Description:
By secondary structure, this protein is an alpha/beta fold.
Amino acid sequence: MEIIEQIDEWRQRYADWQEERSRVSGNGDVGESYPFVKNKRAPFTPARRALPMLNLALISSAGVYIDGTDPFDLNAPGGDLNFREIPIEVQAADFRFAAKGYDSAAVRQDLNVQVPLERLLEFEVNGVIGQLNPVFWSFSGFITDAARLANEMFPKLIERVKRYDVQAALLIPASRLCHQSISLAARALEQAGLPTMTLAVDKDVVECVRPPRTAFYEGELGSIAGRPNWPQHQRRILDEALRLIEPMDQPGIYQLAVELETQVENERGER
């Protein structure tokens, strides 16, 4: 199964879009005319281990990099096709963000809203997951050229992920366009035999691109893994999403119940 179905047709739509709009301005979105990838089917790899036995990898498209290293190039034609492999021991204060298409205010306030290392390490200690992989992967998901992303970045990313004997991956977008980039990454990983879970707050994009497993809720771009400085909210989203990896037996989008519970907490003034 292809990561992008009917890729030649998509390339033509993308060329037409480029001709119509020579560049994406500022830090905004790609606009309504952007040709989001449209897939009809999704690859699917069943989980062969229970969640408490998994080595879980984290993949972020928030453009995270370590202070003092080269940032992602937000002006690269079609998007920056590089990724970073970052040890989970790096402190939050040492991270910087190449943010495009989303407001980085929330993640600068609380890293866990996009890169939930603290929450996942808590899950490791509490036996929810077997372990958090010792490195996570980051790229800047504001990549308009989806074909180059699939053909050039993903084979390299899959090679690195496989070196760590990862058994499942959690993928977290940041912007609207990131939902496409992350969804395509999930398709590539599952095609390579690795179960994934994609967090999402933009249902329209994931329904078009069709990542294998998606946990959706009515959240906000730039804080996909929960609201800043609200660890209970973050734990609830991640716990419910991750526990879907094993029981899901076919591709699909699952609506998280976190919304209702959060509304009740708000009414009570709890946070």
